[in-house]
Design brief:
The protein is an alpha/beta fold. 23% of the residues lie in helices and 16% in strands. The chain contains seven helices and eight strands, in the order H-E-E-H-E-H-E-E-E-H-H-E-E-H-H. The chain has helices at 3-7, 57-75, 100-109, 155-158, 191-195, 236-239, 246-259; strands at 10-11, 17-19, 86-96, 131-141, 144-148, 152-153, 199-203, 212-213. Strands 3-4-5-7 form a four-stranded mixed beta sheet. The longest helix is centred in the N-terminal third of the chain and has 19 residues, at 57-75.
Length: 262
């Protein structure tokens, strides 16, 4: 939904006001959108009271309208923070690109120009592994804390794999042929807990897009065609990730970044 439409008064065809806007420009950021966290299965109601079931621009618009209403309502009682202190910290690192699909595309078509530390005249190996430079960051704005994650983070890394986040749905699909062992899922403290502050927020797709960021306990590739084909048990995300070592490498980097205080 266009930001100017969200924050100005929103009128229906009959001239009635849906919500009083505040002026200014809105900013949308993603959260932990890995693991296919989306509204694809939702049925939002648009401002005219029509339920939108079919995927498409009208559904996206209805979702945006409902989010805008929630935000406007929340802002009615939100405290004003005058002259908040601002701090920013970042750390750069180079993540190994183990995905065969990306490696082949890079070698054959040279579409990925950011890969470094790799000799194309030699075979891929642990000693000759292409890497991609990226960056993580944390931002303090008064009581707010933002942690920037350069990809599509699976939510159990941000907030844990608690049944309460399933919202009444089974945590594991009944059709999953090779379900994950939730007893091996990452334990606390999760990234949001480590971030601290009165209002911690983990941001996905921030600074970069390294594809899906999948914890090692449920990172599975096809036995015969790793990364090129999907493994049994709902493992599409692995085919669009940089590799299994990405999350451990990022978590290690976050330990250092989160230990820093301005």
């Amino acid at each position: 939904l266009d930001s100017l439409e969200v924050w100005s008064n929103r009128y229906l065809d009959d001239g009635s006001v849906v919500a009083d806007g505040l002026g200014g420009v809105s900013l949308f950021v993603n959260g932990s959108v890995g693991g296919m966290q989306s509204s694809l299965g939702g049925q939002p109601t648009n401002l005219d009271g029509v339920v939108i079931s079919a995927n498409g621009i009208e559904k996206a618009k209805a979702v945006g309208e409902q989010i805008a209403l929630v935000v406007l309502e929340a802002l009615k009682t939100a405290p004003e923070v005058k002259a908040p202190k601002l701090a920013f910290g970042a750390q750069r690192l180079k993540v190994a690109v183990e995905n065969t699909r990306i490696q082949v595309t890079y070698l054959a078509l040279e579409l990925f120009t950011r890969l470094v530390e790799f000799d194309k005249t030699k075979d891929v190996s642990a000693e000759n592994m292409p890497r991609i430079p990226t960056e993580i960051a944390k931002i303090h704005v008064g009581p707010l804390r933002f942690l920037a994650v350069p990809g599509e983070l699976l939510p159990e890394l941000a907030v844990g794999y608690d049944a309460k986040w399933a919202f009444g749905k089974p945590q594991i699909s009944p059709s999953n042929q090779d379900p994950p062992d939730l007893s091996k899922a990452p334990g606390p403290p999760y990234l949001k807990d480590q971030l601290g502050g009165e209002m911690p927020c983990v941001l996905g797709l921030a600074n970069d897009e390294l594809g899906y960021l999948i914890p090692p306990y449920d990172f599975k590739t096809h036995p015969d065609a790793p990364y090129l084909e999907e493994a049994d048990g709902h493992h599409y995300e692995e085919t669009n990730s940089v590799g299994a070592s990405a999350v451990p490498q990022l978590l290690e980097a976050y330990k250092k970044l989160l230990a820093w205080q301005p």
